[in-house]
Amino acid sequence: MTWHLPTSVDDVVRTRAERPEAPIVAGGTFLGILVRQGLVEADEWISLQRVTELTRMHSAGDLSVGAMVTHRRLELDDTVRTIWPGVAAAFKAVASPRVRNRATMGGVLADADYASDPPSMLVASNAVAEIASVRGTRRVPVEDLIIGHYSTSMEEDELITRVVVPRPTGAAVYRKLRTRSQEDRPASSVAAVVHGETVRVVVGAVSDRPYHFADVCSQWRPGDLDSAREIGEEYASRIDYIDDNRGSAAYRRHVVGVEVRRALMAVAR
Amino acid sequence: MNLTLNVNGRAVDVDAEPHDMLVDVLRDQVGLTGPRVTCGVGLCGTCTVLLDGEPVSGCILMAPLAQGKEITTIEGLPEDDEVVASFDRNHAFQCGYCIPGMVLTARDMIDKGHACSREEIREGLGGNLCRCGCYLKIIEAVEEAAQ
């Protein structure tokens, strides 16, 4: 077996273009489970562990997060906690410190696992992913990146290099509903971020991908409980829910209405 | 694949493929049985090791990812480690199976200043399960060691 250790983004995308079957390993927390369970096998692997340019983070204007920045770093960074508290909260909600010490920004988006915490907050925050390949670089809103269960709109030779989160102009709230234990994945993941006079509400972990309904959000009257309740009910009714160990579809339909309402009341405070 | 790992301050040569997890390499090739395999999905914390001082789940860490990092297992802590002594004084265990993971997680929390309140300690140990249910004693032991 071959464990490729490229040291630059150019190296990575060239290596991947020549070996499209070789999995790219970032933090390895999700791939590690799949490999251990025999769900992923490969003769060649491409590890990002030596690509130092992917570990950069800047917060002078917008927040620019390299693909290899860990959840733990986002959770603990003073500037992120102060200016992007919703982002810090969503990454802090993931699993345990052990996982957050390894799991990365690029990994959580490329995996597109429906039961992750960060995607709903990143979509609500209007985050944009920068994606590189031998053909060049392009930018894709996270909203258009995750398109279904473990599916993204990326081509197989592409690599997420960084994610840019605009500087917020209003409050942000992340609500994670756990139904089993502290380190569990969310049964529902609701993010609400105020942008000027409008709000972006995004619901994740209850269906194949995060859901945002701009037409419903446009009805919002800040601080009005009836408005928050109506938006919650509309979100609850529009999503096609899954059943899993964390909750039935019927249960999720109910809690999404409640969680959206509470998130909207919290951002209006 | 031949890998050189830095374990508890010494360089160790092992033969490990990417599908070999660090905990198995440490147990089967290096002979360190402090890290244990239980859930196999990074949930329970018995496989905890420190990688450059930060706790990680050894059961889902592909062994090559540990190259170039300093790996610390419970065997690598000094004999007079304050966290170990505090667990002992507080009788913070019954069967002891989860304790290496608890101690290493606590070591990191204390070193980084994340064990300043009971709430913070509870949250920090949230991913380490003790099926004997010794949580109260464990929290007291960490609280005492942090002082």
TrEMBL record, chain A:
<dbReference type="InterPro" id="IPR016166">
    <property type="entry name" value="FAD-bd_PCMH"/>
</dbReference>
<dbReference type="InterPro" id="IPR016167">
    <property type="entry name" value="FAD-bd_PCMH_sub1"/>
</dbReference>
<dbReference type="InterPro" id="IPR051312">
    <property type="entry name" value="Diverse_Substr_Oxidored"/>
</dbReference>
<dbReference type="InterPro" id="IPR036683">
    <property type="entry name" value="CO_DH_flav_C_dom_sf"/>
</dbReference>
<dbReference type="Pfam" id="PF00941">
    <property type="entry name" value="FAD_binding_5"/>
</dbReference>
<keyword id="KW-0560">Oxidoreductase</keyword>
<dbReference type="InterPro" id="IPR016169">
    <property type="entry name" value="FAD-bd_PCMH_sub2"/>
</dbReference>
<keyword id="KW-0274">FAD</keyword>
<keyword id="KW-0285">Flavoprotein</keyword>
<dbReference type="InterPro" id="IPR036318">
    <property type="entry name" value="FAD-bd_PCMH-like_sf"/>
</dbReference>
<dbReference type="Pfam" id="PF03450">
    <property type="entry name" value="CO_deh_flav_C"/>
</dbReference>
<feature type="domain" description="FAD-binding PCMH-type">
    <location>
        <begin position="1"/>
        <end position="170"/>
    </location>
</feature>
<dbReference type="InterPro" id="IPR005107">
    <property type="entry name" value="CO_DH_flav_C"/>
</dbReference>
<dbReference type="InterPro" id="IPR002346">
    <property type="entry name" value="Mopterin_DH_FAD-bd"/>
</dbReference>
<protein>
    <submittedName>
        <fullName>FAD binding domain-containing protein</fullName>
    </submittedName>
</protein>
Automatic annotation (TrEMBL), chain B:
<dbReference type="InterPro" id="IPR006058">
    <property type="entry name" value="2Fe2S_fd_BS"/>
</dbReference>
<dbReference type="InterPro" id="IPR036884">
    <property type="entry name" value="2Fe-2S-bd_dom_sf"/>
</dbReference>
<dbReference type="Pfam" id="PF00111">
    <property type="entry name" value="Fer2"/>
</dbReference>
<keyword id="KW-0408">Iron</keyword>
<dbReference type="InterPro" id="IPR036010">
    <property type="entry name" value="2Fe-2S_ferredoxin-like_sf"/>
</dbReference>
<keyword id="KW-0560">Oxidoreductase</keyword>
<keyword id="KW-0411">Iron-sulfur</keyword>
<dbReference type="InterPro" id="IPR001041">
    <property type="entry name" value="2Fe-2S_ferredoxin-type"/>
</dbReference>
<dbReference type="Pfam" id="PF01799">
    <property type="entry name" value="Fer2_2"/>
</dbReference>
<dbReference type="InterPro" id="IPR051452">
    <property type="entry name" value="Diverse_Oxidoreductases"/>
</dbReference>
<keyword id="KW-0001">2Fe-2S</keyword>
<dbReference type="InterPro" id="IPR012675">
    <property type="entry name" value="Beta-grasp_dom_sf"/>
</dbReference>
<protein>
    <submittedName>
        <fullName>(2Fe-2S)-binding protein</fullName>
    </submittedName>
</protein>
<dbReference type="InterPro" id="IPR002888">
    <property type="entry name" value="2Fe-2S-bd"/>
</dbReference>
<keyword id="KW-0479">Metal-binding</keyword>
<feature type="domain" description="2Fe-2S ferredoxin-type">
    <location>
        <begin position="1"/>
        <end position="77"/>
    </location>
</feature>
